[in-house]
C-alpha cells in the first residue's frame, strides 16, 4: 500500500481554521507533526481537539510533553501515553524537557499563546520573561484568577509596569486583597499606592505605618489616615 503524503498546514492559517476543520485534521492520519504541534499550541484549552491530537499517529513527543506540562488536563485518563496500533505504548522521541527549558526554547509568539492558554505554572514563569508583550499576555489571559493577581500584587519580584497594569484594571481593584497587596508592595509606584491607601482597613493601615520596606511617604500617609479613622470610630 502506498504511503499517504503528509498534509502540512501553513503556520499563519492554523488560528483561522474553523472548529470542524481542525477536528477533521486532527483525525486525518495524513496531517503532519508540525501542524499538530501548532494546533496544540493555539488551541491548548480545547479538550476535544487536544484529545484527538494527543492520540494522532504523527504527534511528536515534544507536543505531548507540551500538553502534559502546560495544559490543565492532569486528571484526565486519556493523558496517559498514547497507544500504537496493536496496543503498544508509543516510544518517546526525545526526553521530556522541564517547564523552564521548554519556555526558554519558545519564540515570542509561542510564549504569548502559552500565556493566554497555558496553566497557572506557565503563567507564573512567563511573568519573569523580559518581553513586555509576553507579560501583558499573561495579565490578559482569560484563565488568570484573582487569587493569582493578588499574589502578583504582593510580589516584590515583578516590575512597576506590571503593578501599574493591575492597578488600572477596574475589576481587579474591587478585590480588597489585590488593593492591599499593591499598597504594601514597595515596587508599586507611589502615586498608585497613595490613590488606594484610603481604601485600607484600620488593621492594614496600622501594619503599613510600621512597614519600613515601603517609601516613607506611604508610611506617613498610613499613620495619618489611621489616626483619622480611629478618631472617627
Quote the distance from N terminus to C terminus. Answer: 87 Å
Helix content: 40-55%
Structural class: mainly alpha
The DSSP helix count reads: 14
Q: What share of the residues does DSSP label as strand, in percent? A: under 5%
DSSP summary, beta strand count: 0
Order of helices and strands: HHHHHHHHHHHHHH
Give the integer mean of the pLDDT values: 85
- Give me the Rg, rounded: 24 Å
Q: Sheet bearing the most strands, described?
A: none
Shape: elongated
Residue stretches low in confidence (pLDDT < 50, at least 5 long) are 84-96
- Number of separate domains: 3
Overall description:
The protein is mainly alpha-helical. It has 3 domains: about 1-85; about 110-145, no CATH class; about 145-233. The chain is about 55% helix and about 0% strand. It contains 14 helices and no strands. The protein has helices spanning about 20-25, 35-40, 45-55, 60-70, 100-105, 110-115, 120-125, 130-140, 145-155, 160-165, 175-185, 190-195, 200-210, 215-230. Helix 13 (about 200-210) packs antiparallel against helix 14 (about 215-230). It is elongated. The N and C termini lie far apart (about 85 Å). Mean pLDDT is about 85; it is low at about 85-95.
Give the secondary structure arrangement, pairings included.
Blueprint: H1 19-27, H2 33-42, H3 47-54, H4 61-70, H5 99-104, H6 108-117, H7 120-126, H8 132-139, H9 146-154, H10 160-167, H11 176-184, H12 190-196, H13 202-209, H14 216-231
